[in-house]
Structures are given as C-alpha cells and as structure tokens.
Amino acid sequence: MIRIPRLLAVATLALFAAPALAQAPIKIVGLVELSGTGATSGTNFDNGVKLAVKEINAAGGILGRQVQYTSGDTQSNPGVAKALAQKAIDDSAYVVMGPVFSGSILVSMEETRRAEVPNFTGGEASAITQKGNPFIFRTSFTQASAMPKVARYIKNGLKAKTVDVMWVNNDFGKGGRDMIVKSLEAEGIKVGADISTDPGQVDFSSAVLKAKQSNGDALFVYTNEEESARALRELRKQGYAKPVVGETTLTSQKVIELAGEAANGAVAHVGLSADAPLPTIKAFDAAFQREYKAKSDHNGLKGYSGMYFVKVITERIGKVDGKAFAAAMKGAKISVKDNPGVLMDVTFDQNGDLDRESFLSKVVNGKQVIVETLPPLGAK
Amino acid sequence: MSAGLRRTVLLVAGLAALVAVAAFAKRSEVYLLTLTLVYLMATFGLNLTVGYAGQMSLGQAAFFGIGAYVAAIALKAGIPFLAVLPIAGIACFVVGLALGFPALRVQHHYLAFATLGFNVLVFLVMRNEEKLTGGTFGISSIPRPTILGVSFEGHLAYFYFTLAGLVALAAALWWLLRSPWGRAFAALRDNPIRAESLGVNITAYTLLAFAIGAACAGVGGVYYASLVEFIEPGPFHFSTSLMMLLAVIVGGSGRFFGPVVGTIVIILLPEVLRSSSIESLKFMQKWYLVFFGLAVVALMIWLPGGILSIADRFRKREAPR
Amino acid sequence: MGDFIHLLVSGTATGAIYALAALGFTLLWQAAGVINFSQGEFVMLPAFAMLFGISFGLPLWLAFLVACVLAAIVLGLGFKRAIADRLMGHGVIPLVIATLGVSIAVKSIVRAGYSAEAHPVPSPFPGGVLSIGGINVSYADIGTLVMAGAIVIGLQAFLNRTVTGRAMQAVAQNTESARVLGIDVRRMVAYVFGINAVLAVVTALLIAPTYLAKFDMGDSIGQKAFFAAIIGGFNQTRGALLGGVLIGVLENLVGFYVSPAYKEGVALALFLAVILFRPEGLLGKAEERKV
C-alpha cells in the first residue's frame, strides 16, 4: 500500500494514452503565466498558441484531428507550474507549451520529462537545454546565443569601450548578466558598473545614478518589462544621454507603452518581433491584432510559431506519438516556404536549442522599428 | 468523555478517508494534498505562538524557508532525511529564541514587527547569497528520502510519508499541550494575568511557544523541499507568512484543529477551484481572494474566534473544552 | 560630491513620499489605535481612480481632486464606519487581521475586476534635470519635495493653529480627557480617517508616475510607511517624517556606495535596531499602550 511500483504507474498511464481514440482531439496543454510578475509574457504566449490552434483547426487540424488547447495559470510560481505540469500529464497531454519563465520551466520540465511528453518553452535561460532533457525544446533564442550578437553590436555599432550593466536579480536577469559579461569580455569591452536591481523594484533612482556616475560609453539594461519601463523613465528623468541597449524586453510593446516617451532611442536585439519586415510575420501581426485588439510582443510569436512546430513535426512523423515527436525534433530543419506558420526558417540542434535570423530594433517615436536583420549564428 | 471519544472516532475516520482518497486520486491531486499537509506543519506550529501564547508572528515563512534550505543543502550532501529533520528543527528553534528573546523583552506586541523584519531579511539573504543558497536560481534536484531501503520517491509514497510525519508532529504538540508543563500554555491563553500571579513566567513561556512554533515550521520546510524537489526564495516571501497567520486565525486560533480548517481554506480550496473544469467554479477562482479577504474582515467583526468557533456558538452551555 | 548631493536630494524626495504615507499611518494609530495594514492599497486605489478620471478626459489636477473627495468618503469615512468602528477597543490583533483582509480583497478586486497589468500614469511635473554647478536635480524630485513639504507644513499648521486641529491632537494624546473637555471625539476621529485618505491620494499622485499603477503597487509603499512610522516613533507625527526621509536617503546611499542587492535591507536593519534598542522610535516618547 505504501509504495506503488513505478512500472505499474507507467503502465496505467500508457493504458490510458495508447489507444489513440480514433478521431478524439489532440490535447495540447499550456502552462502559462497569466498572473504574477510574468503576466504580460505569459498572456502573450498563451494568446499566440491560441491563435495558431484556431488557424490550424480551421484548416482541418493536425492529421485530420482537431486540436484541443487548454491553459493553466502558473501565477509565475515554479511550485504551481510543477503541479500544473503533473495535471497536464494526468490529462494525457500530447505536447506541453510553456511556461515562459525560466525558473518555472526548470522545475516543471522534470515532470514532462518523467512522463516523456514533449515540452516547448518560451524560457531563455541557457541552463534549460543543458540538462540533457530530450523532451525540452525552445521557441526562442537562448541568452547564450543572443548575448554574443548584442556584444557584437555594442562593439561594432556603438564603438563602446566600457559598458555598464543593469540587470534584475532573478534567474532570468542573473543568467543574462553572466552571459553578457562573458560576451562583452570576449569582444574586448570592459564592464563598468555592475548594477543589480530587484524583481518588482519600483525605485530606480540609485541604480540610474550609479550608471550615470560610472561614465561608461553605454548602458545595457536587462530586466523584466515593468522594471525596464521604470528604469527607462528614471533614466530620462535624470537626463541620461548615452545609448541604452537591451535584449528583447527593452524595446517590447509593453515597455514602450509603460515607459512612454522615455523609451525613445532604446535599442535592443530581438530574436522575434511583430514588427519584423517579413511577410509571414506581417500576416501574423494582422491576425493577432484582429483577434486580440492588441499588438503581440515576442512571446506571442514564440507561442504561435511553437504551436506550428508541433503541427509540422507531427505531420512529418505521421502519428500522434510524444516519443517519436521528440526524436524527430533532433536536428529538425523547418522551412518557412512550406510552413508559413513557423514564421522564419529554423534549425533545431540536438539539445532542443534553435537557430535562425534575428533583428536589431530601435524605439522611434513610441514605435519599435527594425533597423537591421542579423544572420543566424550558425551562418557565420 | 463521550465528546472526547467522538472526536477520536472522527479523527480516525478522517485520516482513513484521506488515506483511501489519496490512493485513487490523480498525481496532481496527491501533490496538492501533500502540499497542504506540509503547510499544515507550519501552521500547527504557528497556532502555538498565536493561539496559545497570544503573540502575532509575521515570520513563519522565514522559518519554513530556513528549514527548506537547511534540508536542501543537507540532503544534497547526502545526510539522511531522518537526521535532517532534527537539524532543521533545532536550527529554527535556536533562531527563534535568538529573535524572540530581545523582541519579547522590550514589549510584547513588538514580536510581530520583529518577525516581519526578520522575514524580509531572511528573504534577502536567500536571494543574494548565491554561494550558499543558489540565489535566484534556487537549489534543484533535492532528493526524496529512502529509509531502511524503502523509497518514498513516488508521489503516493511520499504523501503517506508526509502524512505520517504530520500525525507524529501533531501528536507531539497534543502531548505537549496536555502535559503539566503544557497546561501553563492554556492558563496563559485563558487568563494571562492570573497565570502570572500563579507564578507562570509569561515571557519565558511565550518565548518557548514561539521557538517551538518556529521549529515546527522548520520541520515543515524539510518536507517541502523534498516534495517540490526544488526551492527558490519566492515561496518564503513575507506574504506567505501573512497567509499562514490568516490560516491560523480563520480556522480558529487557539483551537487544536483550527489550522486544519484554515489551511484547507487558504491552500487547498483555491487550488481545487483553479483545477476544476466547471466554468462557474473557474469564475469563483478568479474572485476567490476577493471573497476570502472580505470573509476575513467579516470574521473579525462577527466571529473573531474563527470558523471552528461556530460550533461553540450553538452549544454555548456545554462544558468548556 | 555632486553625486552625494544628488543622492541626498533624490533620497529625500523618495523619503518624503514614504513620510506622507507614514504620516497617515501614525495619525490613525494616535487617534484611533488603528494599525492599518492596508495602507498600501489606500495608495493604490487612488492611483487607479486618477487613471479613470483621466480616461474620462479630466485633466490630471481635476482627476486628483476628484480622487481626494472619493478617497475621503470611501477610504476615510467608509473604512471607519464599516470596519474600524466595529473593531476599535478589541485590541490590536483583530484590526490588523481585518485590514490584512481588506488589503487582500482590494488587491484582488482590482486584479480580477480590472487588470493584472501595470498602467502608465502621467507625472504632475515636467521631465528633465536642473543643473546648478555640477549638481543635477530632476524637476520631478524638486516638485515632489515642494509638494510634500507644503502638505506637511500645512498639516502641522492645521493641527497646531486651528481649534479643530488642536482638538484632534487632544484626542490623539488622551481620548478620555478630551472627552471630559467636551471635545466631539467621534467627529475628530472621523477627520483623522479623512486626512489619512487624502494623504494617501497625494502619495499616489507622487509615486504612481514612477511605480506605475498596478494592483500590487501598494505592497512596497505600505511596508515602507510601516517601517518609517516605527523607526521615527509611532506616537509622534515628526517621527514619521524623520523615519520616511531617513529610509529614503539611506536606501539611496547604500544602493550607491555599498550594494544595490541589499538596498531593501536598509530600512529593515534600521527597523530591527530601533525596535530592539529603542522600541518607542527615534523621536517617540515611551508610553503605555493606548489599547
């Protein structure tokens, strides 16, 4: 009674999952941050997936079966994310989408791995794909692949010699900070002030003052959306005049909306952007705005393209089978020509990391503008 | 006697039902039940401080966290679970004494302020001292126990394991409160001034109650770390302390089973609503905290003794417990 | 040196905002024995009220005035009638718990009923910085200091110079003898609740532009007000001012010269030191408990 043998439990699970009930819908479960610090990111990701599901179902589903998507709120809390992952497995999900927050996915992916359910994440921490988990896949760049691109821009585009780094002290910010420092040093750029800020911090006056006083040639800001907006407002308030560079969040829609005029001039590398000058992304942008009356941030594109990865790979293997799916993801190349839903040509590696083109964005007059398209890392 | 017997029968029946339900519950439901049991350890302890010693503690989550971090570090270092339990408990007991002594020395209600500050400070240390606590990345892959060759790794096995731990903890507290030494607590609760005139050293007893309460939270933290298998500072934020305090008071502070009711209302019920597939319940979930907050206010106004005091209202005349 | 002065000025400005919230906190305690754990939400609600006003086309100043009136009615009188009146005289704990309940309910209402996201709020002051001899001070900081200073001086004048103000002080110092003197205690206490609510609206006006309006924006300011009040001395109005400014300045200095990671720990360390070594607060007078 005390101990149910593991084998038996797995067997029971398999029993429920195996007879793929002919035309029953394919179950996809989302674990997303609908409240808490990650609410903006999670909601966008969730909406992206929903939009893709709607389109896929309207076009006849996957292998002739409809897709049924349900999502649960992790409250941006890893403990809840873990519980929801277990629930997704109880509900025999075929693929799990999310969470977006790295801290949450690092916990919940243990569950999907144990149950051998493929899991797409919006998380960008490098550690996620370095744990040898064969069931985890990204929908975006990792910090390890994005930061070298940022450092390269700071060196060649800005000709900066010293850069101050302002980061948020959570797993996301700390991981990014470690990676940008490494990348900057690799490019021969010195790191001036190393400024840590708190998650949810509201008062950035001393942080900004520290940046002003350090006399670096530029400031790299790596915090979550609301904090980025507060930092930009404080930078403007104190009259900071040097270039402000970020990665993805800094020029996102939400930050621009919250920071208002103070966001103008900020530059950031973005892996995905609803403003990218590509026909597929333009089509996505229009559909998203029609559906939700709001512009998608990068997380919306992650969720959307992630759902299309599920469709493409499932059709490639010709059956609804989690393990075969995970195997087929290794080294998969998906071209946008045949599958416009994936938005851009993409290559997956053995770890579940992806590579593709990316962009340099700038905020001009309260709008994110793409100023440059950067080639995939693998192309160099 | 018949009331006592009835209670015992009820208790045994409740435990049996729990054991049976868990066996048929889904993995996620068992996880949730286990989580509730773990929080119960902390709130049982807090009840000692709040209900029996009449002190407000706003730092129970800090002790819960200290227990969890001690467990995470010790378990990963290969120290067996049964050895980690007393280590974490004693650590929290000692920290509780060190914090409570100066605070209670000056003025009694300052314990609330001191514990609140303490909780924020502990949270900062957890987040910033990366070498020790893993900082914001936390500590992952915390093992679940294997005792005498029996593995408690499976979700159901770990549930029963935690249930046994909780029952043992509750029994110890029950015994403590019934012992001659523990009766002083009851005297303290019912009439502090009379207790003092009878020679009960209020400060010493209050301090002990607080420290024992802290130790219970530490023990709960050990089970928590092993349950979630990953810890980071978030769950030990001072807001968790507030919820734990509310759990004790909502259930009925100073009543032995008050925390059970309160913890169910605060931890289990919202999660049940959240995972429910019925639309109207989902709506409830969104507004749950609104109702809960208003209910707390109403409770303070009309039923300050907590939910469990409802029964007393109906049988006011029956012999006091 | 220029940095130091800048840190001092902006710290004082931030501290002045904490002090305003703390001031209401101590007034409530003195006059009514109420420790209000929903003080932060009393700041958050007016921020949203002003946003609503602006969305209906009101200019900021008018939205602010409307929010003041609404707050005095709802967060002042309403809070007193519905909750505080019923629990006063039953000790500190039930009131603390009840205000915790209010805090949870109010936050959840905003979150579930309106939005879980942050919203930008316009600033009453112009952007940019003023440079005098190498010292840069932002207009927002100057505006904050002027406004907070004016409010504090005005409030002090009201409390010390007017009959009503003096009656309120008498109630705060000793309710019983005030009653004997023929002061309408109930009315005076009601005024204090109203003043607390209006102070909260001013706090909201000053912090919302940088904090952004969000359902949980009150957590931080509520906690700071609480710390400031205890550091300065719970039973002294001046204490709240000192406590608030001290926290604001020290946070800035520590964040700058030591480590931003422990910036939040500043208020805390000070707070713990005070309650352990000088529990009546820096400016407070030792007194027997009111309740």
Question: Could you describe the 3D structure shown?
Answer:
The complex is a heterotrimer of chains A (380), B (321) and C (291). With 380 residues, chain A is α/β, with parallel strands linked by helices. In chain A, 42% of the residues lie in helices and 19% in strands. Chain A is built from twelve helices and 15 strands. Chain A has helices spanning 6-17, 39-58, 78-90, 102-114, 143-156, 171-186, 205-214, 225-237, 253-259, 279-292, 298-317, 322-329, and strands spanning 26-32, 67-73, 95-97, 119-121, 136-138, 162-168, 190-197, 218-222, 244-247, 267-270, 333-334, 346-348, 354-355, 358-364, 367-374. In chain A, the strands form three sheets. A seven-stranded mixed sheet of chain A has the order 7-6-8-9-10-14-15, with helices on both faces. In chain A, α4 (102-114) links the parallel β3 (95-97) and β4 (119-121). Residues 1-21 of chain A have low confidence and may be disordered. Chain B is 76% helix and 2% strand. A two-stranded antiparallel sheet of chain B has the order 1-4. A two-stranded antiparallel ribbon of chain B has the order 2-3. In chain C, 75% of the residues lie in helices and 3% in strands. The longest helix of chain C has 31 residues, at 2-32. The mean pLDDT of chain C is 85. Classes of the chains: A alpha/beta (380), B mainly alpha (321), C mainly alpha (291). Chains in contact: A-B, A-C, B-C. Chain B binds chain C through residues 56, 102-103, 106-107, 109-110, 112-114, 117-118, 120-121, 124, 127-128, 239, 242, 245-246, 249, 286-290, 292-297, 299-301, 304, and chain C through 83, 86-87, 90, 92-98, 100-109, 112, 219, 223, 227, 230, 261-262, 264-265, 268-269, 271-272, 275-276, 279, 289.
User: What oligomeric state do the depicted chains represent?
Assistant: heterotrimer
Strand content range of chain C? under 5%
| Low-pLDDT segments of chain C | none
Order of helices and strands of chain C: HHHHEEHHHHHHH
Number of domain units of chain B: 1
* Helix proportion of chain B: over 70%
Q: Which word captures the global form of chain B? A: globular
Dominant shape of chain C: globular
* Beta-strand segment tally of chain B: 4
Element string of chain B (H = helix, E = strand): HHHHHHEEEHHHHEHHHH
In terms of structural class, how would the helical and strand content of chain B be classed?
Answer: mainly alpha
